[in-house]
Write a structure and sequence with these properties.
Layout: H1 3-10, E1 13-17, E2 20-23, H2 24-54, H3 59-84, H4 93-106, H5 108-123, E3 131-134, E4 137-144, E5 148-153, E6 158-162, H6 163-168, E7 171-173, E8 180-189, H7 195-207, E9 219-225, E10 230-239, H8 243-263
Antiparallel strand pairs: 1-2, 3-4, 3-7, 4-5, 5-6, 8-10, 9-10
Helix pairs in contact: 2-3, 7-8
Length: 289
């Protein structure tokens, strides 16, 4: 079989779209174009990501640019493929309209999540690395996709949350603007203890932790005369990207408080009840001798 015969076979008309013949060679060309196009797209995304990472660009900007590049590349690839096989884009106008209507009714949630994903990547109310609290789940954002957002929970479990849920529901973003978080530790001491001395020791135990910020300064509050104790609170700020750091810092403050209270003979209060009896009390000894 010579070149002329091969050319004639490839020129054989297979189908006609919008009065434009599509040859066998054109159909065989489609997978090759798609393969090369996807290969170039992946190479381009990898190249852009590497350059931006070298310049220490925000990972969220890189993620957004990757998505935009993919969409543009797919559109260009589609138009190029149709042009090479001599199929006008207008030939799909009616078909695409019908598909769009059916797709709109049957896949509202998918479209909603898709649009929500682009809103999240563009407006950036939630970014990669943010610590979120969604309903009863807390975790760090690892990836924002076009349909869902992947969160690594504090116990290591991964959650896939639909993007629309992040926009339509209340979401607590602990690190939206910065990583500063305020927390507190409470303690109750026995009645008769000098309140000023207790306040000084609480402040000393708090400032002993390197994670605690001195600007703003921790504030010790004599909260109340409780039922069984004098109640104190200390409010302080730390740099934290998750709940674990808060719990560890509070624990270290309590450890140090226990040591300081023991050194100064201060008793941590516990529930007590005084019982008063009116009248006489008779004790009976039932032991047999």
């Amino acid at each position: 079989m010579d070149f002329t015969q091969i050319k004639e076979i490839l020129s054989t008309k297979v189908i006609t779209i919008a009065e434009q013949p599509v040859t066998l060679g054109g159909l065989l060309l489609i997978p090759l174009i798609i393969y090369l196009g996807l290969l170039l797209t992946k190479w381009g995304v990898r190249f852009i990501t590497k350059r931006l990472t070298t310049k220490k660009t925000d990972p969220n900007i890189i993620h957004l640019l990757q998505r935009v590049f993919y969409v543009i590349a797919i559109v260009i690839l589609l138009i190029t493929t149709l042009d090479l096989i001599n199929v006008p884009i207008t030939a799909f106008a009616f078909l695409s309209g019908a598909i769009a209507i059916g797709f709109g009714f049957g896949a509202q949630n998918i479209i909603n999540n898709f649009i929500s994903g682009w809103i999240l990547m563009w407006e950036r109310p939630i970014k990669i690395g943010d610590f979120l609290e969604v309903e009863n789940a807390k975790g760090v954002v690892e990836e924002i996709n076009t349909r869902s957002t992947r969160i690594r929970r504090v116990d290591g479990v991964h959650l896939l949350i639909p993007n629309s849920k992040l926009l339509e529901n209340t979401v607590v973003n602990w690190t939206l603007r910065d990583s500063l978080v305020r927390t507190s530790v409470s303690v109750g001491v026995a009645y008769g203890t000098r309140a000023r001395k207790v306040a000084d020791l609480i402040l000393e135990a708090t400032l002993a932790q390197k994670e605690v910020l001195t600007a703003p300064m921790p504030v010790v509050v004599f909260e109340d005369f409780g039922d069984n104790s004098l109640v104190f609170y200390v409010n302080f700020w730390i740099n934290s990207t998750g709940e674990t750091a808060l719990r560890v810092t509070r624990s270290n403050i309590r450890f140090r408080l226990e040591e300081l209270f023991e050194e100064n003979n201060i008793v941590v209060a516990f529930p007590q009840r005084d019982v008063h009896l009116d009248g006489t009390l008779t004790l009976l000894n039932n032991d047999k001798k």
